[in-house]
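ok so i was messing around last nite and threw this chain in just to see what happens. nothing serious, just curious
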Amino acid sequence: MDQSRLLFQGDRFDVVDVRRVAPDGTMCNRQAIQHPGAVTLLPLLGDGRICLLQNYRATVDLTLIELPAGTIEPGEAPAQTAVRELAEETGYRAGRIELLTTFYMSPGILDEKMYLYLATHLESGPVALQPDEHIVPVLTTWDEALAMVQDGRIQDAKTLTGLLYFDRFGEPRGDRS
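result:
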């Protein structure tokens, strides 16, 4: 029998005490963060550059280099969130949005499912940041993005996952610099 008890209700997530029966029949008890899910995007320009963001994160008091991303709003499909977040954070509008993969951010404490999209055929436009967002788009070559992964300038998990996933499994192959 699965049981949950609400411990905290927030604007973007809840904290619950979860009791579930594991596949072997034992009872598991965990405190977990329930999140509606999110998207992250790999915006790939026609010349092979990608759009990363310098994003101040108050939680860790750092400006991180990240892929654009955002939380799925109630009633919104992940692909709709991808279109909205890309425009809000980068100003780009994509002619094509393609789901690459899904993954869990930190399943030991968090049920957030992340949807990774490739955004191509980009046209620039205005950004529409929230008042508390401190985001600066940064266009970079593919090789430079991978160098930032290798030397530790990129520390954000969704960005590491997105870049390395696309580098290994994405198209097009060959020179993306």
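not much to say yet. The helical segments are 78-90, 142-151, 157-169.
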